[in-house]
Amino acid sequence: MQLHMDNFASAKYDVFSMFNDRWALCTAGTPGEFNTMTIGWGTMGTIWGAPRRGKQVITVFLRESRRTSDILLQSDHFTVCFFPEEYRKDLGILGSKSGRDVPDKISLTKLTPKPLGDAVGFEEADLTFVCKKIYTHKMLLEELPEFVRDTLYKDGDLHYIFMGEIEDVSGSIG
Ligand SMILES: Cc1cc2nc3c(=O)[nH]c(=O)nc-3n(C[C@H](O)[C@H](O)[C@H](O)COP(=O)(O)O)c2cc1C
User: Fold this and answer.
1) Residue 19, domain CATH
2) Which of 36, 86, 109, 125 could form a cystine bridge with 27, CB 3.0-4.6 A?
3) How many structural domains does the chain have?
């Protein structure tokens, strides 16, 4: 099914596997300056509205050490792009090399960035969400449950929680 803004809300997203199993690229910044990274965590849902009028949002979780979170702290928009299976190796590369060390890391992949208004997506994506950042919060070490504080956050590299209102969707599912 080809998605447009009028039918994306009724599409059946496989939210428990689309991030966890498929992975995605989260791209922050403008066509002039942007950075992208692989994400395996993300949520979709609604917030901040009367019943049936909640804003449709995607929330991503980017550690403060990521170059992408630096850029997103200063950006109004981000995109979340999903890809066909043939690009998994490229997502592996973008999820292991940092733009801090390898500024042109996209050139190590088969992926082609493209402008989407002020945001940036990819030609090869089969499903792309353009999101307007509406909330940013850095996790608080003292609020984290012990089982992650002592494991995932032992080094103090906390996640920023970026919530984005979905402004545009392109591509297809199923
Ligand atoms: C499958 C996979 C999923 C990942 N998910 C996340 C994530 O949800 N949040 C995060 O902060 N890092 C995640 N990472 C790690 C970043 O993608 C990785 O550190 C990347 O190099 C950061 O790039 P940057 O510094 O250019 O932003 C993931 C990596 C992989 C391979």
Assistant:
1) 2.30.110.10
2) 36
3) 1
